[in-house]
Amino acid sequence: MAEAVNDNSDGRAPTRRERAARTRRTILRAAYAEIADRGYHGMTMQAVADRGGVAVQTVYLVFRTKAQLLGELLSAAIRGDLDEGSVPTRPQESEWFREAIAAGSAHEMLERFVRGAVDIWARVAVVHEAARVAALTDPEVATVLAQTEGWRQDDYRRVVVLLDEHHGLRPGLDVDRATQVFLTLYGPGVYLSMTQEHGWTHQEYAEWVLDALSRLLLEDAPAEA
């Protein structure tokens, strides 16, 4: 029998759960790279297995279907669970989300939310866009994407409701329309367009979208510099 490999930082052999978690993360990282290179339809379970250095049967054992793999990949990217040693966190449980909800002004609330969540889009945008394209012809992917978008809409609407209740939206702008504006400007499509097609930096996109949303959503828009 082969000896257990002592590859933990404390020198002990990894447990079965730790090995399973590492295998899962390896597959997800391989799937991320495959989707980035080839899109969802171009990605195959065999290609994911080859890139991750695991058997294709292992990929199917962990994720069962390609659509399920996509859903888990979206969730992992949102939580920040793709890198070794990362501490996955749901956006609603993160410090920046709590700080945004507790902010004392509309502009502070919006700024904390935008600056906190922008790192999520840096991780998720490529996978989300590939899923959006695939969802046009694949009902399973459409279901996965609808669930992810539902979570995003709920979070954004929560922020918009608080802006409206405590600080005030622009006159004539209701919560539904404000949420739609928020979802459109602060999402993967615009993020990719600005950073990949137009060459904006991550920081430039964050600054621009914060300024744009402040002017479009809030009653007391920031003054011109």
From TrEMBL:
Q: Which Pfam families match?
A: TetR_N
Top-rank taxon of the source lineage equals Bacteria
Which residue ranges are recorded for the region named Disordered?
1-21
Basic and acidic residues bias: start-end ranges: 9-21
Domain HTH tetR-type per the UniProt entry, residue ranges: 21-81
Alphabetically list the UniProt keywords. DNA-binding, Transcription, Transcription regulation
- Please list the residue ranges the record marks as binding DNA: 44-63
What is the protein's name according to its record? Answer: Helix-turn-helix domain-containing protein
Q: What is the lineage of its organism?
A: Bacteria, Bacillati, Actinomycetota, Actinomycetes, Micrococcales
